[in-house]
Amino acid sequence: QVQLVESGGGLVQPGGSLRLSCAASGSIFGVANMGWYRQAPGKQRELVATITSGGSRNYADSVKGRFTISRDNAKNTVYLQMTSLKSDDTAVYYCNLYYFRDYWGQGTQVTVSS
């Protein structure tokens, strides 16, 4: 069974930075595709960034140039480095692991406000 635990969320001022982490249990992390999604109040969950098992990255247009997704297979952890944060980035951020099915973390709140 795969469990995903996110951390690193919080309150940050516009223009600030945060780094989210997602630690995965189990033995499939190295062969799985990983991603970050977010859901703002009243909106649908949307893709933020993904990284394949081979290291290929994909980003939503809204975060390109500001966010960076990375993974450390030795630590079973995926990261999301967020810079130049805007109020529109306020959301609950969810970690996703895909290996023949989706697995989700519990989410971590990111609030960008002055």
What does this structure look like?
There is one protein chain. The model has no long low-confidence stretch (mean pLDDT about 95). The chain has no helices and eleven strands. With about 110 residues, it is mainly β. The chain is globular, with a radius of gyration of 13 Å. The chain is about 0% helix and about 50% strand. Strands 2, 4, 5, 6, 9, 10 and 11 form a seven-stranded mixed sheet that branches. It has a four-stranded antiparallel sheet with strand order 1-3-8-7, with no helix packed on it.
Summarize the structure.
The protein is mainly beta and 114 residues long. The chain is 0% helix and 51% strand.
Oligomer: single chain
Mean pLDDT: 97
The parts where pLDDT drops under 50 for at least 5 residues are none
Strand content: over 45%
The helix tally amounts to 0
Number of distinct beta strands: 11
Helix and strand pattern: EEEEEEEEEEE
Q: Strand pairing plus helix content: what structural class?
A: mainly beta
Helix share of residues?
under 10%
How far is the first residue's CA from the last residue's CA?
40 Å
Highlighted features:
single chain, 114 residues, mainly beta, seven-stranded mixed β-sheet, 0% helix
Topology at a glance:
Elements: E1 4-7, E2 10-12, E3 18-24, E4 33-39, E5 46-51, E6 57-59, E7 67-72, E8 77-82, E9 91-98, E10 102-104, E11 108-112
Parallel strand pairs: 2-11
Antiparallel strand pairs: 1-3, 3-8, 4-5, 4-9, 5-6, 7-8, 9-10, 9-11
